[in-house]
Amino acid sequence: MVGPGAALILALALASADDAFIAGYATAILEREFPGTKASVQVRNGVIYLQAAELTGRDRDRAVSSLSRIDGVRAVRVEEAPPVTTETESRPTWEAFPDERLFSPLLADPRWAHFSMGYQHFSRSDFPKLNNAGVVSLGELFNVVAWRPRDAGEFTFGLEPAIFALFNMDALSHDLVNADYRLALPLEYRKGPVALRTSVLHQSSHLGDEFLLDTPTQRINLSYEAVDLRASCQVGQFRLYAGAAALLHREPSDLDRWSAQQGVEWFSGPGLLGEALSPLVAVDVQEHQETSWHGNVSVRAGIEFLNPRKTRRRIQILLEYYRGYNPNGQFYRERADYFGVGLHAYF
What we know:
Shape: elongated
Order of helices and strands: HEEHEHEEEEEEEHEEEHEEEE
Distance between the termini: 66 Å
CATH class of the largest domain: Mainly Beta
Helix content: 10-25%
Low-confidence stretches: 4-16, 82-89
CATH superfamily of the largest domain: Phospholipase A1
Radius of gyration: 24 Å
Structural class: alpha+beta
Strand content: over 45%
CATH topology of the largest domain: Outer membrane phospholipase (ompla), Chain C
Mean pLDDT: 86
Strand order of the largest sheet: 5-6-8-9-10-11-12-13-14-15-16-17
Number of strands: 17
Largest sheet: 12 strands, antiparallel, barrel
Number of domains: 2
Number of helices: 5
């Protein structure tokens, strides 16, 4: 018969053995999935304490997701203050042209700067009268400088040019209908699962010459400067975000200033094909004072291909559905419903 003291000692020994097993398994996962990364774990009573200063953004989220699936793990906690090493101390406080993207792209936002091409079938398009349309976006974030104050997260400042074009595929020459030109100056910040982004931007919108010849209309000289602020937080496999924007100088001058944005994104846990492929779903909702705060809903879902060691570069094949006011600049007061498919690339 085992006494209370012996039972306690046995329980502690078993718990210690389980913790050692989990620590070994977790270390093997980190070495396999993130080779060359300075990452370490400690396990106490089934709780993994992950110290990984080099793992940021999606990499960190993938690591937490992978470790959470180990049998016997009760929780995974990321320690923001890892042991100081020579490499950590030598990491530059300032860096020119950093690679990191601190605020991940909003995948269902119809006006996020990136490279894409797609097809849209309109079930409703009050004006212009569209049925089958092609869309192209050309844009990217170019980080200029990074600042990393110790124990206070990381900042980046950059340039973000973009063009968004809409084509009428039913016209004989696939007429250019509308083109929006944008230049933004974004400042981004990230610490752990929380990221912030603010930017000052200019946008102007133009109708295509062939469209004007075929469809006589009064062109709106739409042009404005704006400032926006967005915040996002990663919660397990979900990312939640919200933000607002205000127009500064604008033409026409009676254009209402304010707009709001909210959304959620979901990525699966560890991907397929050696982390190179994973499904995703994203929902974006925007409201504008100009259109009486009616919600514009954009939903995208599909698969993403990436190199796990270069997670900024990725390609997505996404189905999409949109309902609300037309996101193409010249037609911002017109209703539009469409579904489609697109190829999206981030560099």
